[in-house]
Amino acid sequence: MGAGFVLSAHDVFSTKITWSREISRLVDKRCVACHRAGGSAFALTTFEEARPWAKAIKEEVLERRMPPFAAVKGFGEIRDDQALTQEEIHLISDWVEGGSPEGEPALLSKNPHVEAPAPPPATSGVELIVDGSITLKHPISLAGIRPNSLTEGSSVKLIATGPDGLIEPLIWLYDYKPQFNRSYYFRKPLKLPAGTRIEAYPGSAGLISLLTSN
């Protein structure tokens, strides 16, 4: 049969990755919180809904425009991480390049689970603004950060250096899109002592708000 395998009289597929077995579960996990009936974007809950968008989905995930999380994995301990792993990106890409087969509908999850984002943690209402850099005059409990006036398409790293020289990576925002503006919370609030210096790289990217907790 060669490199591909035939599932119908018209379609020749070159991948064993299917919507029913792998891709639908990935979409349920990462996409349908928004991409569903009544959600904030067009529905992708069935093969019939998703198949016409297959090439666009591949392009969006390869460029990391979707899901619109912006924070790079592994740089800081950010909760509610919606970004795709490299393995998930490869899975979608291979499915699309292989012809986007549906597979056997009997393999679809019987009870797809859509995980709602956790409610934001309580914050003190006090925000500190990082304009390039800031040195803390008092200790704080840092709950998260919020882009304040970052330019579209900018990428910026936020790093804290303690008075003892210990470096703490906070967050790396990549290819920022203002239309997807959101706050980013840490898995646990970070206790930063007085004298901690928080710097943005590059410092010209714009303003970032530090969200503190009691």
Question: What does this 3D model show about the protein?
Answer:
- The protein is of the alpha+beta class.
- The protein has helices spanning 19-30, 47-50, 54-62, 86-97, and strands spanning 5-6, 12-13, 127-130, 133-135, 140-147, 156-161, 167-173, 184-192, 197-201, 208-213.
- It is 17% helix and 24% strand.
- Strands 3-10-5-8 form a four-stranded antiparallel beta sheet, with no helix packed on it.
- Helix 1 packs across helix 4 (86-97) and helix 3 (54-62) packs antiparallel against helix 4 (86-97).
- The protein is elongated and about 65 Å long.
Ordered list of secondary-structure elements with their pairings:
Elements: E1 5-6, E2 12-13, H1 19-30, H2 47-50, H3 54-62, H4 86-97, E3 127-130, E4 133-135, E5 140-147, E6 156-161, E7 167-173, E8 184-192, E9 197-201, E10 208-213
Summary of the model, kept short:
The chain contains 4 helices and 10 strands, in the order E-E-H-H-H-H-E-E-E-E-E-E-E-E.
Rg over C-alpha atoms, rounded to the nearest angstrom: 21 Å
- Largest sheet data: 4 strands, antiparallel
Average predicted confidence as pLDDT: 87
- Tally of helical runs: 4
Going by helix content, strand content and strand pairing, the class is: alpha+beta
Shape: elongated
User: What is the strand content?
Assistant: 15-25%
Strand order of the largest sheet: 3-10-5-8
Helix-strand string: EEHHHHEEEEEEEE
What oligomeric state best describes the polypeptide chains here?
A: single chain
What is the distance, rounded to the nearest whole angstrom, between the alpha carbons of the first and last residues? 65 Å
Low-confidence runs: 1-9
The helix content is: 10-25%
Number of strands: 10
